[in-house]
Design goal:
By secondary structure, this protein is α/β, with parallel strands linked by helices. It is built from eleven helices and twelve strands.
Length: 282
């Protein structure tokens, strides 16, 4: 009997902007794997999410990535959950195997890999400043702690959310209007807010206060070089961009569902940068 193509995809709302189909298609093409990776828009409720997952399992999907607003729904829907997904309280990966649905969180490992590739090793003495306290901030905090950071400060516009994250992970908080004051002391700075993203307000930071050797990361990837990263690069700071995290978080899903090599390299990066530039010109 002829082997059927492997099916996987990304679930979100909105989802049309996702670069994940491009990443998975590039890896499948390289590995000569017959498969499709499809963006699927699913309305925001848990019931709609569960209905869509039931349908995808029936038609034989191997798994899906999950993005806003369904990462918590994915955890609730799954039968089994990895430790990182449980700790994060969110999953960006569901793998369907027989009657089981397994939830995992590769955003955490994605940031870890991107950080390790770009920056020096994290020391226990390092002071990290994380801007934002949304879903991505949780994954970044877990990644920084896994990398060895013990002194993490969170600043977020909605202070209750910063306080909740700080309590859950043993962090300190800084008032959002005063985050420039804390820039000077930070060895690691990570923007996890959507500020600076195309169509969103800018991230107003006094970048001249950033220490010369601080590692500066921004998980926003459209535009690729945010104003924060531009300023940090111009000052000679090591930087980590959102595209690096995006590519690394995609790799575990490709390996699990398509069973091929998922190499994060310059050729893949160039393809994604080309697509981002094409979109900017539209
Ligand atoms: P989220 O849960 O909606 O959180 C958004 C965060 O941005 C919150 O901290 C929010 O603060 C803050 N924010 C939004 N508008 C703001 C404003 N006008 N002023 C101050 N703060 C503002 O979203 P998320 O899932 O964490 O994603 C955040 C960003 O990370 C997005 O740009 C997303 O594309 C990116 N991301 C990238 C990757 C990657 O692989 N590179 C992975 C995941 C996410 P409040 O709490 O006060 O609302």
């Amino acid at each position: 009997m002829k082997k059927k193509p492997i099916l996987a995809g990304v679930i979100g709302s909105p989802v049309a902007h996702s670069l994940s189909p491009l990443i998975h298609t590039a890896w499948a093409y390289r590995a000569k794997i017959d498969g499709y990776y499809i963006p699927i828009e699913v309305p925001p409720s848990f019931d709609e999410f569960a209905r869509a997952m039931d349908a995808l399992r029936t038609v034989g999907f191997a798994g899906v990535n999950v993005t806003i607003p369904h990462k918590e729904h994915a955890l609730r829907y799954a039968d089994k959950t990895s430790d990182p997904a449980s700790i994060a309280g969110a999953a960006n990966m569901l793998t369907f195997a027989g009657d089981d649905c397994y939830a995992d969180n590769s955003d955490i490992g994605g940031f870890e890999e991107a950080f390790k590739a770009a920056g020096p090793a994290v020391s226990v003495e390092d002071r990290a400043l994380v801007l934002g306290a949304g879903g991505a901030a949780r994954a970044i905090v877990i990644a920084l702690q896994t990398l060895g950071a013990q002194n993490i400060m969170i600043a977020n516009r909605t202070e209750e959310k910063a306080a909740a994250l700080a309590e859950a992970f043993g962090l300190k908080t800084a008032p959002w209007p005063e985050c420039n004051t804390f820039l000077e002391a930070a060895d690691i700075i990570v923007n996890t807010t959507s500020l600076g993203m195309t169509g969103q307000p800018p991230l107003e930071l006094e970048t001249s206060k950033i220490k010369p050797d601080a590692v500066v990361a921004d998980i926003v990837y459209a535009p690729l070089e945010t104003r924060l990263l531009q300023a940090a690069s111009a000052q000679g700071n090591p930087t980590v961009d959102g595209l690096a995290m995006l590519m690394h978080q995609a790799a575990p899903g490709f390996r699990a569902w398509f069973g091929g090599e998922a190499r994060v390299d310059q050729a893949l990066r160039a393809e994604l940068v080309g697509e981002l530039k094409r979109r900017e010109q539209q």
